[in-house]
Write a structure and sequence with these properties.
77% helix; 142 residues; 0% strand; mainly alpha
Length: 142
């Protein structure tokens, strides 16, 4: 009990990680966990920016990108047609759209010189969202 109480503050300071998502065997659930992690990393980006910690800001931005990549790779690995089995794909499309809006708002709120830090994560998030939307609307290419 004391160990758990002692580690809780330290765990809160650590950046979000993908270990929980990677441990999930169900690829749809893995994708959801990865996108949840991206949301946590987005909060970490905001907190790091408010503290003025550029190293933590860059690490959290990379965490967003890695989380979105894992979510996309997991959905692709299912081998399912998004049009015929939209459950996880639609959920991921909605979540990526929400994350993209929040990321754009955060980037807009940042100082002009700090904005490029989020460009790669934003571009990847936009690409994954577009691919998900295309898959849902047109179906998987054969």
């Amino acid at each position: 009990m004391l160990l758990a109480v002692g580690l809780f503050p330290a765990a809160r300071l650590l950046p979000a990680d993908l270990k929980v998502a990677l441990a999930e065997h169900d690829l749809g659930k893995r994708s959801k966990l990865a996108l949840d992690n991206a949301g946590s990393a987005l909060k970490a980006v905001r907190e790091a920016y408010q503290k003025g910690d550029s190293a933590e800001l860059a690490a959290a931005a990379l965490e967003i990108q890695e989380s979105v990549d894992l979510a996309w790779d997991s959905l692709e690995s299912t081998g399912k047609n998004p049009r015929k089995s939209p459950r996880w794909f639609k959920q991921a499309e909605i979540e990526t759209r929400t994350l993209l809006k929040k990321l754009e708002t955060l980037q807009h709120d940042m100082g002009f010189e700090d904005r490029p830090v989020l460009d790669k994560a934003k571009a990847r998030l936009q690409k994954v969202h577009d691919d998900l939307l295309t898959g849902l609307m047109e179906g998987k290419s054969k």
